[in-house]
């Protein structure tokens, strides 16, 4: 492995992650606005980028392992300590770690927004009587009647 290979791999990973974070920000905006029906293309691109990120990370891990280091954060830290002249790689690694934290935070926030949307949808369906069809057993084990599933009774 050469330092150039690792530098290029770190830069590729950073660029892919930067695009991924932009998608997470767009996803957050759509969720905040309640425009979940517009997320299909975004999710497709997000999945494609997640796959690309996994490939680049695997390449980085392979390069670290080839250099005799563990394929993880510790291995990268050790490699950087052994190559103090690699300022560009160190800067890329630092930017990558910062951006990774931002991606993690955005992903958690988006997950919470999605959870809230699902909760509101479930509540709306429950109010409309779509939760349990008439004549079946409800969550309490009691049979439901067609009269109890009317919207006016649930509102």
Walk me through this protein's architecture.
Helix content is 73%, strand content 0%. With 155 residues, it is mainly α. The chain has a single domain, classed as FlgN-like (Methane Monooxygenase Hydroxylase, Chain G, domain 1, Up-down Bundle). α1 (3-33) packs antiparallel against α2 (40-66) and α1 (3-33) packs parallel to α4.
Short description:
The chain is mainly alpha-helical and 155 residues long. It is 73% helix and 0% strand.
Number of helices: 5
* CATH topology assignment: Methane Monooxygenase Hydroxylase, Chain G, domain 1
Q: Assign the CATH class.
A: Mainly Alpha
Query: What percent of residues adopt helix (DSSP H or I)?
Result: over 70%
Provide the CATH architecture.
Up-down Bundle
* CA-based gyration radius: 24 Å
Sum up the structure in keywords:
155 residues; mainly alpha; Methane Monooxygenase Hydroxylase, Chain G, domain 1; 73% helix; 0% strand
């Amino acid at each position: 492995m050469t330092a150039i290979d690792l530098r290029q791999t770190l830069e590729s990973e950073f660029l892919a992650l930067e695009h991924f974070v932009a998608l997470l920000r767009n996803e957050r905006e759509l969720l905040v606005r309640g425009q979940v029906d517009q997320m299909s293309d975004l999710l497709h691109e997000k999945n494609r980028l997640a796959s690309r990120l996994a490939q680049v990370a695997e390449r980085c891990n392979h390069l670290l392992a080839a250099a005799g280091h563990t394929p993880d954060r510790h291995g990268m830290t050790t490699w950087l300590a052994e190559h103090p002249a690699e300022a560009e790689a160190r800067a890329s690694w630092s930017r990558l770690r910062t951006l990774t934290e931002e991606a993690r935070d955005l992903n958690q926030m988006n997950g919470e927004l999605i959870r809230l949307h699902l909760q509101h949808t479930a509540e709306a369906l429950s109010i409309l009587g779509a939760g349990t069809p008439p004549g079946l057993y409800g969550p309490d084990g009691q049979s439901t009647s067609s009269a109890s599933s009317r919207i006016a009774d649930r509102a």
